[in-house]
Automatic annotation (TrEMBL):
Gene Ontology MF: a single term: endo-1,4-beta-xylanase activity
Enzyme active site: 264
Residue ranges annotated for the GH10 domain, each copy included: 30-328
Name this protein carries in UniProt: Beta-xylanase
Keyword Nucleotide-binding part of the UniProt annotation: no
Keyword set includes Aminoacyl-tRNA synthetase: no
Species assigned in the record: Kibdelosporangium aridum
Highest taxon of the lineage: Bacteria
Protein family: Belongs to the glycosyl hydrolase 10 (cellulase F) family.
Extent of the signal sequence: 1-32
């Protein structure tokens, strides 16, 4: 090949490379993410699932988990009955399996749950007063210490408010130890694992109602008195519809200076796909809504058999609800630049890179975020 031919080849090659580069730039912006986790991460959020340790040997289940999700919540394995079956004797085997599975794949972990009236071991159910209170504090301290540094956010207290219009606390053995049990629980969790975000988690709080307003007032009070709280979790167990003020309700909590998460989403009924899309859009419209967790993977994994409330069918196929969520994520916007809890999406974006130390500020899609 002569010199001029060589030069022409070089020029053509260069033109080709530039053209290929342009194509990939345009393709890069036009290409929608094809998994829930990637689509959420592009919007500065995580997308998680409740996971059962017993299913980690199920190939279809694990394939979907690893492909689609970048956050996990142990469905039952971190609860009091599972972790402290007899007083002072702890068993973390199943919870550790889930945490290790998640963290070795760059997924963040929601801890669920440190103090709850339900799923207590028999010995705790039999306690009351100051002995129950000290057992609760010890339980929180031991569990949060065991997982120290590994948990993105803890559901420190779960479901402590009553249903209906009273706005009262739920009556329970923990509540009967004194009204301050919630703040004592949050302080114990903060002391044991200062790096974890602390969350109050509840259901039937999907709109502005007496129960969500009572929780709102508790957050105001905690903020005023310096009781540590970083998050409010909205479980969002829904059937066929979502209250019209769902997004406004998330936003009023965010305006108090806490982040919000959708923590246990499942939607039954014929209108499922549309409602999944709507809930996803609501989260994306609230800058401080940092992620969504669905309460299981396939319909056959769901704890209430037959309700078919999830995103994958029993064979592991994507349902219309899945497409509604993915499309909503891809159409959504990134949060405005500012101070926001970026830990979960940092982990998502850096998935499998082994780079887990989050910097103080972070750039996503050209905007700069300061870590809350
Ligand atoms: O999914 C959980 C199921 O396997 C348990 O049997 C049940 C027992 O209470 O708890 C389910 O999870 C609940 C969660 O821990 C708290 N919020 C309500 C969830 C069920 O909708």
């Amino acid at each position: 090949m002569g010199h001029s031919m060589q030069r022409l080849t070089t020029v053509l090659l260069a033109v080709g490379l530039v053209f290929a580069g342009l194509v990939s730039v345009f393709a890069g912006t036009a290409d929608a993410a094809t998994t829930l986790g990637a689509a959420a991460a592009e919007k500065g959020r995580y997308f998680g699932a409740a996971v059962a340790a017993g299913k980690l040997s199920d190939n279809t289940y694990v394939t979907i988990l690893n492909r689609e999700f970048n956050s996990v919540t142990p469905e039952n394995e971190m609860k009091w009955d599972a972790t402290e079956p007899s007083r002072g004797s702890f068993n973390f085997a199943n919870a550790d399996r889930i945490v290790n599975h998640a963290r070795s794949r760059g997924m963040s972990v929601r801890g669920h749950t440190l103090a709850w009236h339900s799923q207590q071991p028999g010995w705790a159910q039999a306690l009351s007063g100051s002995s129950l209170r000290s057992a609760m504090v010890n339980h929180i301290t031991q569990v949060a210490t065991h997982f120290r540094g590994q948990i993105h956010s803890w559901d420190v207290v779960n479901e402590a408010f009553a249903d209906g219009g009273s706005g009262a606390r739920r009556d329970s053995n923990l509540q009967r130890t004194g009204n301050d049990w919630i703040e004592v629980a949050f302080r114990a969790a903060r002391a044991a694992d200062p790096g974890a975000k602390l969350c109050y988690n509840d259901y039937n709080t999907d709109g502005i109602n007496a129960k969500s307003t009572a929780i709102y007032n508790m957050v105001v009070d905690f903020k005023n008195r310096g009781v540590p709280i970083d998050y409010v979790g909205f479980q969002s167990h829904l059937t066929n519809s979502v209250p019209a003020d769902y997004q406004a309700n998330l936003q009023r909590f965010a305006n108090l200076g806490v982040d919000v998460q959708i923590t246990e989403l499942d939607i039954a009924g014929a209108n499922q796909a549309a409602v999944y899309g709507s809930v996803t859009r609501s989260c994306l419209a609230v800058a401080r809504c940092t992620g969504i967790t669905v309460w299981g993977i396939r319909d056959t994994d769901y704890w209430r058999v037959g309700q078919n409330s999830l995103l994958f069918d029993g064979a592991g196929n994507k349902k219309p609800a899945y497409t509604a969520v993915l499309d909503a994520l891809n159409a959504g916007t990134t949060p405005p630049p500012g101070v926001i809890d970026t830990t979960a999406w940092y982990a998502s974006v850096n998935r499998n890179s082994g780079n887990t130390a989050e910097p103080n500020s972070y750039t996503l899609n050209g905007a700069t975020y300061t870590v809350a």
